[in-house]
Amino acid sequence: MAGPIVVLIICLLLPFLNCQDDQKVTLADFGDEQFSQGERHYLIYDINHGEGFNLRRDVYMRIANTVRQLREKGHNYVLVLPPWAICTTGFEDFLQVNGDKIDLVLYLQAYPEGWSEDEGYTLKYDKKPCIDAYHYYAMVEDAVWKGFFFTYEKVYASELECLSIQGQSSTLADAIIKDFPKPMSLFVDRAETILHDRFGDVFYWKARRSMRYAKKLVEIGNRFRLEHFNSTDQTDRTPLADDWEMDKLNHNQATGGNYIQIVEQMNIKEVEVLEQQLDHLQPTHVHRFLAEEMSDAAVSIVDQWVCAHARHFVGTHLSTFSFRIHEDREILGSPLRLRSIACVLMRRSKLRKRREILPVNSQPNGPLFMSSDQKYLLMMLLHTPVHFYTTLIDWSNTY
């Protein structure tokens, strides 16, 4: 029976996403009256250890929709979240119920031969010999496979199998139903191998909206907005309900803060030169969020939060950092027209005049974009009070 998408609070890379004390929903509880009456299966997952924040968020969405489809087809699966940093509730809850044993590690891998232009990209999966799984897992005794397992030394798996897969969330769901229905606990490793079913559909957005940034970092970002831009959720019309399912934001509702977010791939020296040039165009103001006591990763999350609330945003083409900000802005209710304009801008080698790319009612707001050509930027700037918020680097190379 069809039902709602998996609704989870993610604890992702402390302290980047929120772990609410009153909503520790990590072992998803759907209610047996809505789904299968069969035995409960647990699906745990992990990705390549070196991957960053935004990919981890994206893979959560893919796996959440895998579990949704398993349940819609009558299979009683529960999604167990990885214990990123201090937010260990999900995996520890699983261990309390099931002990230290995981029935099966299913290691996802690409087909070594890839796919040909003649064949095209087809959805498929096959049990195959492991390509590199043995670099990360070792059988220390019969039916005892040891691996990373989130640094839990006592945890082990009874079996290890490798699945070459070329597909998406539904492809993985089909493979589990057909070839791996028996394990009560299934650990899917390298989950980033699968893709989204339908990018941007209702289930994509439900999973996306279920994620919230860590309250601590949101508060830091909000203080920065208020101090430098006099920007608040009330004045900018960007409030979010505590329960994401209660948000009823409409596009064009948000006005955004009185500042322009710019993401440029520049080194520190280039940024300093740009600031010096902008100083000659007072009263234009340039701001950056700097916090030596915070990690670069935490600073990048504050950057994303501040970016999402800007009145206008111009990012970098093909940057995942920029793309996630556009998603946040859409969730907050930013106008879709300006969002699409920014996407067009990022595909151009040079930015055009404002009258060519912005609605007439946006013209009085001053300079709304940046070009990597500094001379072009200076030529286009107006002598009006405008706040720019810049990041030191394009975080797409890291996150």
TrEMBL record:
Signal peptide coordinates: 1-19
GO molecular function: peptide-O-fucosyltransferase activity
InterPro entries: GDP-Fuc_O-FucTrfase, OFUT2-like
Keyword list, A-Z: Carbohydrate metabolism, Endoplasmic reticulum, Fucose metabolism, Signal, Transferase
Enzyme Commission no: 2.4.1.221
Subcellular localization: Endoplasmic reticulum
Pfam families: O-FucT
Pathways involved: Protein modification; protein glycosylation
Top-level taxon: Eukaryota
Alphabetical GO biological process terms: fucose metabolic process
One annotated Gene Ontology cellular component of this protein: endoplasmic reticulum
Keyword Nucleotide-binding: no
Family (UniProt): Belongs to the glycosyltransferase 68 family.
Protein name, per record: GDP-fucose protein O-fucosyltransferase 2
Species the sequence originates in: Ditylenchus dipsaci
